[in-house]
Amino acid sequence: MSITSKLPHIGTTIFTIMSRMATEEGAINLSQGFPGFGADPVLLELAGKYIREGYNQYPPMAGIPGLRQRLAEKTQLTQGYFPDPEKEVTIVSGATEALFAAVAAVVRLGDEVIVLEPAYDSYEPAITLNGGIPIYVSVNSGDFSVDWEKVKAAISPKTRVIMVNSPHNPSGFVWSSEDVDHLAELVRDREIYVISDEVYEHITFDGRKHISLGSHPELREKTFVCGSFGKTFHVTGWKIGYCIAPVDMTSEFRKIHQYLTFTTVTPIQYALAEYLEDPVRYLSIPEFYQSKRDLFAKGLAETQLKFTPSAGSFFQLASYGHLSQISDQELAEKMTRKLKVACIPISVFYSDKRDDKIIRFCFAKADQELLEALERLKELPRVL
């Protein structure tokens, strides 16, 4: 017997490949997007407390009431609206699950889903597995801003969903209020849903504010807002996220969620619920990551790479086309083997694998590790 693959074009992700290569080569891993430092000891102690106290059986399918309440309060404080914790907030096993369940809830066979690229690699498989057709619209080269006229032109009678991401992975671009208004105008009077990947919601720099699509009165009625506690609190391995959506959309979302994972690890939910009681623990995140962005940008300026400091996320792009025309994947492999610094080639984020000679670094690492990587990057010309 042989399996006819539903995803014949999908192999091992570049993130797995580069992290494995980094381990094999003893390289500093600035490729995969996970923090290279520990979480707040207070949060870790809370997790241990709830494990020890016996909170280890199934919680409610939608998440424990306390965590949903704290998340609604956080949303009120940071975004100015209060989703109903009982009917509009669902705790899930990571933002990737939230994105998949949102797609599965609304996409039917033959529906078109507009994807702004470069895009995170989980979007397209979720669309394809649910019978949808991804329609790719490239953002503007250079600053990675959205060309809203191109998005408008891509809308057809078959358009069911527009998938968006801010702060953006891989570029770090952060949407403005004008961007949000443009999107609202496009879906107004159209039966189009929005799936908003907001996992880097608390990681913005230079005074920028993340604007959740849920904070826009019109978009709130059509949007699945998908977020990640793992990204915010440096515990990506806990795989815990959430989805906020209107009542009818949440109802359909939960039908999918209950048969994907049913629920999410119990003691971690209780730990996060208690941890979120102090808003400083998430309001201080931008300052924490800006110090790392600034340190990395200062060092990167002493290399021959060209870049614009990231506006958000914990990623920094850098271009090398003025130095060499080798492919970004070849450069990433050479850097890992010869400089012992691993990065991600940006071509993997495009459906057509276009190569603009740009690479992505993750600066969510210990300062000393970043400084050592930056010293090694000064030697880049010798590997080209």
Keywords:
384 residues; alpha/beta; Aspartate Aminotransferase, domain 1; Aspartate Aminotransferase, domain 2; seven-stranded mixed β-sheet; three-stranded antiparallel β-sheet; 12 strands; globular; PyrdxlP-dep_Trfase_major; Aminotransferase class I/II-fold pyridoxal phosphate-dependent enzyme; PyrdxlP-dep_Trfase
Brief digest:
It is built from 15 helices and twelve strands. It has helices at residues 14-25, 41-52, 65-79, 95-106, 123-129, 148-154, 177-187, 217-220, 229-232, 247-260, 266-275, 280-283, 285-300, 328-339, 367-377, and strands at 28-29, 89-92, 112-117, 133-138, 159-165, 193-197, 223-228, 241-244, 315-319, 341-342, 344-345, 358-362. Its cofactor is pyridoxal 5'-phosphate.
How is the secondary structure organized here?
Elements: H1 14-25, E1 28-29, H2 41-52, H3 65-79, E2 89-92, H4 95-106, E3 112-117, H5 123-129, E4 133-138, H6 148-154, E5 159-165, H7 177-187, E6 193-197, H8 217-220, E7 223-228, H9 229-232, E8 241-244, H10 247-260, H11 266-275, H12 280-283, H13 285-300, E9 315-319, H14 328-339, E10 341-342, E11 344-345, E12 358-362, H15 367-377
Parallel strand pairs: 1-10, 3-4, 3-5, 5-6, 6-7
Antiparallel strand pairs: 2-8, 7-8, 9-12, 11-12
